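Revision sheet: structure tokens.
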Amino acid sequence: MARIAALNYEIVIEDGTWSLIPTGDEVLSSLPVFEITRGGGVMEYTPAFGEAHRLPGTVLSLEYVQAVAIGYDEKSQCWVLGFHVARNRQDKSRWLELVRWPAGNNAIYAASAQQAGRELAEHVGCPLKIFGAKKLPRRTPSDSARSGVTGPLVPHQREDIVVERVKLFAQSVKLPVQHPNIWLGPGRSGITLRLAKDSSAAKRGGVVPSFNQAVFDSKRETIRLLPPTGLFGALFGGQRGREIAFGDVRNVELRHTISREYVPQQEGKDVFTEVTYITYTWEVYLTLPDESLLLAQTAHATSSELSRKRATVGDKFSVNSKAGIEYLRQHKADQEAYEAAETFAWTVAIVIANALEVHVVKTQVEEEPA
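Predicted:
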């Protein structure tokens, strides 16, 4: 849930709904006067709000929305959020202001206005235009969420999977299993995890596994970590083998990190279309008394260019059109890739935790804009 203060309104984003709630001492009701539900296809508003904002009736199809737009109005010295609307795509769109922020310096309300605009564009399913901003910072993933010793050092969600449930989940796993650059299967006296020698190249920034093979020996109750070999190992590894006793492992952590990069693409003078690149990463750690040791990771990357397309009747992405069918195909492939990366990391965590007879800690970190 997110609450964003604006001028005379509070923007509330919760459970797939983006809504405007009036604020002030004279306001008697806390009910929304404007609301959009993700996937609903319409915007709903009160008669008074519609009249004040030149909207017909109390419901309007999102088909008329060509883009969500936010920007800093130099004349009034405030950030504004609204729509570019048109009856048809070929028609010239008109500006429809939705809400604005108090007057002030460009930087004061920039972050909250841009957050509100990004969320609204996601709920509507359309491009996000930014105007009047001289310079927009690029959002890049930070390393802070990956630098923890025994877990994330930033606010995160946490769920513990006890040993009994771990064993139950592990019963449904049939080894071996594999994912690009990762293989997990039975060994001579336990299980073995293997990473491709160049798998770390797939990870940009942050921490990468230091070892490309982990042997879990159930008879000796030890974990043997073998470093990369050859030229690649000499350049990027350099570590000697390491042995860890089963008893030194407190738990297996499955860490899910979500990072975003906001990239403005200039269309004209002081006008940008912003594309959001989202990277989902799942990392499997051994939690030791004084460190978290990364064993394996999977990732999935996507962008708002896919999520902000619409497949609705009357739109060029209609499910009955060629473009609509291609959109649905791309959306399905994107979802399947996400689920494959998530499921494999979960499988690795469960199988290893079962072999060690420890619980799994699921954590989720959503990196905040810098």
